[in-house]
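Re-run with default settings, no changes from the original entry. Doing this only to confirm the output is reproducible before filing.
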Amino acid sequence: MSMQPLRLGLARGWVTWRSVNTTREGLANTIIWNALPLVFLLIFRNATIPGTDISVGVSLLPGMLAMLVVFSVMGTAYYLAAEREDGTLLRAKAVPRGTAAYVVGLLTVAVLDVAAAVAIVLVPGLFIVPGVPLGDAGMWLGLVGYILLGLMACVPLGVLIGSVVRSPRVIGGLGFFGITGLAAISGLFYPIAVLWDWVQWVVQILPLYWLGLGMRSVFLPAEAAALESGGTWNTPLTIGILAAWAVIGFVLGPVLLRRMARRESGAAVAERRRQALQRV
């Protein structure tokens, strides 16, 4: 009986993801937005980092993959806010263990989104970018491990954001620019040592910096660690901080979601629909 929310959530997540990505618009958005990083890999494929033999393309690829994982946070938050607005969350609340199944569905959509995005970028990227250690089993193990750990650290934050921010339009607009701005200062594409000290302290509290650092450690040669803050990959600390964010998210996320679900009612959904019609 305890497996029922898991089965329902997996089925719901698959149906949601398929319904979005089998439409012409949804499929085009998935392919175009996720393939855009390939343009930059093509542009910089033959360039090297000044003073080293390391390809700029191979240094950009892990940051791009980390970005794809983090954008799943905004996807989770957007789905949650939109389905609260249209009454989906209220209907899930009315079903026994429906809230648990709903959360599993959100996580399933996030995993499928990341898997599709990583495949679109990584598979061509491996042939575009020189210097990727394709035959290194440790690289593949580290890649999968950091993606899964990054999902566990970041997707619960999407639940937190979606529980607090009421409008999906705010998440889709300001949230996109906020994540992009955060990525710009989180060292995904250049060392954070060039930033102000206080900015370095802030970004090193958040999981995005550590996810990017971990991804770089599996793609780049050992000597590239000299370019990082402290001159080391700091793997144990990277794993520890990402794991801590995962624990925080999985503890607080369900609490906030249950609190939000308790406040849902037919009258609240009807009022949001009325406001939406007024905006139209």
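The chain has eleven helices and no strands. The chain has a mean pLDDT of 82.
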